[in-house]
Amino acid sequence: MAQAGVVLDRDQFNCSICLDVLRDPVTIPCGHSYCSVCIQNYWDQDDYLGAFVCPQCRQNFNPRPLLSRNTMLADVVEKFKKTGLQEAAAPPNQSFAEADDVECDVCTGRKNKAVRSCLVCLASYCDLHLQPHYDSAAFKKHKLVAASKRLQDNICPRHDKLLEVYCRTDRRCICYLCLTDEHKGHDTVLAEEEIQQKQKQLKDMKQSSQLRIQQREKEAQELRQGIFSLIRSARAAAEESDAVFTELIRSIELKRFEVRELIKAQEKTAVGEAEKLLDKIQKEITELKKNEAELDKLSNSDDPVHFLQTCQSLHAPAVLSASPSVTADPNLTFGPVMTAVSDFKGLLQEVCQGGFVSIYERVRDVVIVSPQSPVVQLNTTHSGDSGSAQQMEAQILIPPLGLDQNPVSPLNPFLPPGPAVPTFAFSPFGSKLSTGSRQRHLQRRAHPRRK
């Protein structure tokens, strides 16, 4: 009685993970049952999260629940499989047609989704109603295609026959009756034969396209490698140039310190020698003034005896020592030194200017894509058995990629373009000089420095 009153449904014993009949069923704390392997694999994927969720009710469990076999449910499933009632009670496998699906032309009521269409019957069939086309010999010669809503497009609108011939002259599909009418004498072939030829041409076009894709991918890979290499080299060059210019700055600072100390040392030496000579002269002046005072006193003496005796004891005035030549110019300065420093500054600027031009030219020479790229033309010709040919031509123009075409300063590309661009000439020593600095260089060569 119980068995007769109960209708068993196969879906009631399906695992919601694998969508198949439960195998070794286990029940988790929320009451839902799954295959032992399915729920373990499902929770293994979330093991790193530390939270375990039921696939149906989304209830969280922490820690991971221990799984135990549901003996009663396992026995029910086994009896369900053995009795075979699930197969009898299960409804046929139906797939109802949706809005965009092709409907079965045989189904009544709610129509199933059609899986194939017959070009002979001009109808579409679901799995159930398509079976006679496979089982019955009367349908063996019928041509089945993918389910389509446009079956009438395969019928000749004039003769109501199947379009089985392709007219190469008019480039359209026709029926056999059209061969004796408006397409008489045209270049015609079976549609299947034309399809095979077109498929071959498409295959050749696809292979050619794949070759071009591979070529472009190779070029793109090489370009990426070039960009990466250039960026890495540019960073290394920038760091090395910073080190070089830092060393140059340190060297200039050292020379500046040496010149300052040299000026101070020369000042101390010259002032020391002058002060010694000044002290000596001051002592001689004091001695001469002392002798002059004694002579004045003696000349004013009224005692003749004392005058005569004192005159006999007088000595001739001491001979003054020879004094070195003294430059008596009150405007004596380090002007020549400053001239030499200015000359050094001008020479250094010219050297730096010429050196920067050379550096700038070499920096501009480092490019990945040449300014003028060639025009790539690809021609592919496909020929059929009937002599017809189709040409596929692809002409790819690659615009030149490179530096900006706007005029920039040849001395410094980071400065805005000026109204006049200086020209350059080479000095007799091989250094590159600008037009203005070349004249100053020649003037300095005409007037050698003081030593």
Automatic annotation (TrEMBL):
Matching PROSITE patterns, A to Z?
ZF_BBOX, ZF_RING_1, ZF_RING_2
Which controlled-vocabulary keywords does the entry list?
A: Coiled coil, Metal-binding, Zinc, Zinc-finger
Protein name per the record: FinTRIM family, member 67
Question: Which SMART domains does this one have?
Answer: BBOX, RING
Q: Where is the composition biased (Basic residues)?
A: 438-451
One Gene Ontology CC term in the entry: cytoplasm
**Coiled coil (UniProt feature):** 264-301
Its taxonomic path starts at: Eukaryota, Metazoa, Chordata, Craniata, Vertebrata
Q: Which SUPFAM superfamilies match?
A: B-box zinc-binding domain, RING/U-box
Q: Which residues form the RING-type domain?
A: 15-58
In this chain, the stretch annotated as Disordered covers 431-451
Q: Where is the B box-type domain?
A: 151-191
Indicate yes or no for the key word Amino-acid biosynthesis: no
Q: Which GO terms describe its molecular function?
A: zinc ion binding
Q: Return the Pfam families for the record.
A: TRIM_CC (PF25600), zf-B_box (PF00643), zf-C3HC4_4 (PF15227)
Gene3D superfamilies recorded: 4.10.830.40, Classic Zinc Finger (3.30.160.60), Zinc/RING finger domain, C3HC4 (zinc finger) (3.30.40.10)
